[in-house]
Structure formats: C-alpha cells, structure tokens
Specification:
By secondary structure, the protein is α/β, with parallel strands linked by helices. It folds into two domains: 149 residues, P-loop containing nucleotide triphosphate hydrolases (Rossmann fold, 3-Layer(aba) Sandwich); 62 residues, no CATH class. Helix content is 45%, strand content 23%. The protein has nine helices and ten strands. A hairpin with a 2-residue loop joins β1 and β2. The longest helix is centred in the C-terminal third of the chain and has 32 residues.
Length: 258
C-alpha cells in the first residue's frame, strides 16, 4: 500500500498542501481531483520522490520512503507528454529502461514485447514515435512503465490532450490492465466523470486539504460538504448539457432528413 501521513508543502509563503493523510490499498485505483492549482501534481511529485514534503511522511507498505531517491522507490509515472526517445523504435523505447535496470538483452526485449502486446501495440514494434498517433504514443509510455513491474503507477492527466474517443478507449484498456496486474494506480484528472467511472476511491482537494476521500457512490450519495456536492454536480451537469445538446441536434437532423 501507499500511505501519506501529515504531508505539508509550501512554495515560498504559499501553503499548497496541509496535513494530507490518506492510504491507497493494494490493487486500488484512486483518482485525485480538484480545480487547477490545488496541488494535485505536487502530491504526485511527493509520492514519486521528485519533491520532498516540508513535513509529514510517505510510506510504501510499512517502509518510510520519504527521503528515498526516486530510483529506490519502485514507483512509475506517466505524464501528459509521453517523452519517448524519438530515434528509438517502439520496442527499444520500452526495453531501454529495463536494460538500464540490469535486465539481460533477451529478457528486456521479451518483457517489452509482452507489455506492448498487452497495450495493443504488437504490430508497431519497429515504428519510430513520429509514426504513431497520440493514443499509440501514450500506450507506449504506459507499456514502458508497466514493464518495470513497479507496485505503484502514477498517472498525471495522461489522456487529457487526446481525442475523446481515444481517451475513452485508453481508459478502458488501463482499467483492464490494472485489474489484471493488481497494481496501485494514483490518477490525476480534471474529468469528474472519468474519475467516477475508473476509481475505487476519489480524493477531492481544495484549500490545501482533503475535502473528501471515499468511493464514487458514497461521494455522490453522501457528499461531505456543500463544496463537494456542488463541485461534483456542476461537472456532471456540464456533461449532461453537452449530451442533451448533441442528442437534440441529432434528433433534429434525422427529423429533417425524413
């Protein structure tokens, strides 16, 4: 499991996170949501180890990893920008970090092929990144992290720049892989509907702290305060308005054709 206890973080005189305490259990997918600037990515950076908290601790299982180097934490991350090596093939992009982690050449390539197959990229092994679509590039980035077989994977809005149809497809694939491999995923997203669909639990941030950390059903049925209720409802109503508009437009077009 991953656990944070009393984590605080400031930038200069601005306190971003205050007394952040929560646990993510083995096999859970937890989404972190909240408005821009509330500290979602900062929280991921503290879990990853690229940023130290001013106060508080981070635990992996029973071990305090707060001051451990990134390489010692066995935690992977996928960003919105997938950062593939442009001169390497898809296969080499996934095998390269395995080789750097002492895998033999044959084992690295076998494992890379396994995870590229898992993410639906078996037919693209020898392609260079410029030959891939945005969705395919993100699949490579995810396969690269999954191949390391870390117990924890962090995702910082990895699909936000993609076409909605591709985003829906990738999140389905991600969910299937996560369930199959039984790994922890901590997922930052602005999309409430996406968080409600994917997550075992959702952590809602605002005003430096956690407003609610609960299952999607409990958050909808029992919001902890007015902000949570309004935040969730406002986002869902936006989706509903778009769907109603599209449905009405489609119905009108079909009627005119008849």
């Amino acid at each position: 499991m991953i656990a944070l206890s009393g984590v605080c973080k400031s930038f200069g005189d601005v306190r971003v996170l205050e007394d952040i305490t929560f646990t993510v259990n083995n096999g859970e997918l937890v989404s972190i949501v909240g408005e821009s600037g509330v500290g979602k990515s900062t929280l991921l950076s503290i879990i990853l180890g690229s940023m130290l908290p001013d106060k508080g601790d981070v635990f992996l299982d029973e071990y305090n990893i707060t001051k451990d180097a990134i390489a010692d934490r066995k935690i992977g991350i996928v960003f919105q920008q997938c950062a593939l090596f442009p001169t390497m093939s898809v296969l080499d992009n996934v095998a390269y970090p395995l080789r750097k982690n002492k895998y033999s050449k044959s084992n690295a390539y076998n494992k890379a092929i396994e995870y590229l197959s898992l993410t639906g990229l078996s037919e693209h092994l020898q392609k260079k990144p410029y030959m891939l679509s945005g969705g395919q590039s993100q699949r490579v980035a995810i396969a690269r992290m999954l191949a390391m077989e870390y117990p924890v994977l962090l995702l910082d809005e990895p699909f936000s720049a993609l076409d909605p149809n591709i985003r829906t497809q990738l999140r389905e694939e991600l969910l299937a892989i996560q369930r199959k491999r039984n790994i922890i995923i901590v997922y930052v997203t602005h999309d409430i509907e996406e968080a409600l669909y994917l997550s075992d639990r959702i952590l809602i941030l605002r005003n430096k702290g956690i407003q609610q950390y609960d299952t999607p059903c409990n958050i909808i049925a029992h919001p902890s305060n007015d902000y949570v209720r309004d935040y969730i409802l406002a986002n869902l109503l936006k989706k509903l308005k778009v769907l109603n508009k599209l449905t009405y437009h489609d119905h009108t077009n079909n009627k005119n054709k008849r």
